[in-house]
Amino acid sequence: MKNGLKLATYRKMLEDKAQEVRRSMSAQKAAQVVARLDVPSDEGDLSQQHHEEWIFLNRNTIDMKLLREISDALQRIEQGTYAVCLECEEPISIKRLEAVPWARYCVTCQEKIAARIALGEQVDDYQEAEK
Question: Residue 91, SS3?
């Protein structure tokens, strides 16, 4: 790969991040179960419980999306396409990969995708993932 890319280093960063996200998801689930009242005593408790469940589900959705992005990046390492922008097919900078090792796009393409999203344009799942 170009720019002296050290794939083993990025693979380790990605695997460590995936493990961190999985641990966080487990801890959140455990905290939600422990905090849950079997029988809410009033409407306030029930409302609070529903709110906490909503927050948990949103966090879980974000974490699952991140795990998919990490898994995709690991597949790109295996396929030899890691660090290549999926939009313009130019190399993704080392600086960007150090900040976001699961990045699919170079900074320029990511900014263009974000601008399209801001204008309400439909983008595919890959493009939306990093907005």
Answer: strand
Alpha-carbon gap, residue 25 to 31, rounded angstroms: 10
* Residues 79/58, Cβ–Cβ less than 8 Å: no
Write down the mean pLDDT value for the chain: 82
How many angstroms separate the CA atoms of 5 and 35, rounded? 45
User: Which position has the token pair 């493009």?
Assistant: 127
What CA dihedral angle connects 82, 103, 108 and 127, to 10 degrees?
Answer: 110
Dist. CA 129–CA 131, nearest whole Å: 6
Per the structure block, which two tokens stand in for 74?
């690991």
- The pTM for the full model equals 0.71
**Is pLDDT at 27 greater than 90 in this prediction?**
no
- pLDDT, tens only, 54-88: 666 667 788 899 999 999 999 999 999 999 999 99
Q: Who contacts 67 (Cβ-Cβ below 8 Å, separation ≥6)?
A: 18, 21, 22
d(CA 131, CA 126): 10
Domains and CATH numbers, the chain: 7-129 (1.20.120.910)
